[in-house]
Write a structure and sequence with these properties.
With 255 residues, this protein is α/β, with parallel strands linked by helices. The protein folds into two domains: 5-103 and 215-248, Periplasmic binding protein-like II (D-Maltodextrin-Binding Protein, domain 2, 3-Layer(aba) Sandwich), CATH 3.40.190; 105-213, Periplasmic binding protein-like II (D-Maltodextrin-Binding Protein, domain 2). Helices cover 43% and strands 23% of the residues. The protein is built from eleven helices and nine strands. Strands 1, 2, 3, 4, 5, 6, 7, 8 and 9 form a nine-stranded mixed beta sheet that branches. The longest helix has 19 residues, at 5-23. It is elongated, with a radius of gyration of 22 Å.
């Protein structure tokens, strides 16, 4: 009996590759903007080791919350635990899968080569913000954690009336873009969103008295069809190997 060589080769290739391909998953992840730099840095190793592919879409926490509530299909959401609590109660997220992945504080940034303002005390921060020709931060209307905090901080410091009129608000992404372009000379945002902006340097964190630390957590969608693969990705995000990446991107492992 003659054997078709092409069919034989196909059978061998299927035996070798088929099972792996069948197990490969494609995950969709909704990522809060402040965590996105870390997430993108960790993805290549995960995809290479598992054969799974990951497509991510970033945005402010408030915007992601609305997308989840609308019934959009996804596999993992990475947002703040406070936002997730409501989504778990609504049955949108699997509460058993929730894991904290990172924490980050609010920092101050200026254009590379510019004089760095004194931000060592609360009064120094007030002086720096008042002296700036324009102050960049995330638009609080988007529901972004840092934007809402900075806007409330201006009220707390008693300088909202002076700073808000000269504010450059970023609806999503890096408010430091305004500094890089020269439209603002200081940015106040989470450190992990200042560090990636070319031409902008992180001066340092806000003083402890007015610091705000945000925690980010990951959870699997209740409707995900790839829950094992999704859980494997969350495990990778919380692994010891992720700690070094977090530090390099201006974040810390969650406690």
């Amino acid at each position: 009996m003659k054997i078709d060589l092409r069919l034989a080769l196909f059978a061998i290739l299927f035996a070798l590759v088929g099972p792996t391909a069948a197990r490969a998953a494609e995950l969709k992840v909704l990522v809060a903007g402040a965590y996105d730099q870390v997430f993108q840095a960790l993805l290549p190793d995960f995809q290479r080791q598992t054969g799974n592919t990951v497509k991510s879409e970033k945005g402010p926490a408030g915007t992601l919350k609305k997308r989840v509530e609308s019934g959009e299909a996804f596999d993992i959401a990475i947002i703040t635990p406070a936002v997730m609590e409501g989504l778990i109660k609504e049955g949108k997220l699997d509460g058993q899968s929730l894991a904290k992945v990172a924490t980050v504080g609010v920092g101050v940034g200026v254009k590379e080569g510019a004089a760095k303002p004194d931000i060592s005390s609360v009064e120094a921060v007030k002086r720096a913000l008042l002296a700036a020709k324009a102050v960049a931060y995330t638009d609080p209307a988007t529901g972004a954690s840092s934007g809402m905090y900075v806007d409330k901080l201006l009220v707390r410091l008693g300088i909202a009336d002076q700073v808000r009129p000269k504010a450059k608000l970023k609806a999503g992404g890096h408010a430091g873009d305004f500094v890089a372009s020269g439209d603002a000379d200081i940015v106040v945002q989470q450190a992990s969103e200042i560090i990636p902006v070319k031409g902008v340097v992180l001066v340092g964190p806000l003083p402890a008295e007015i610091q705000n630390t945000t925690t980010y957590a990951a959870a699997v969608s209740s409707q995900s069809q790839q829950k094992d693969a999704a859980q494997a990705l969350i495990k990778a995000l919380t692994s010891p190997a992720a700690a070094a990446v977090l530090k390099a991107k201006g974040m810390d492992p969650a406690k």
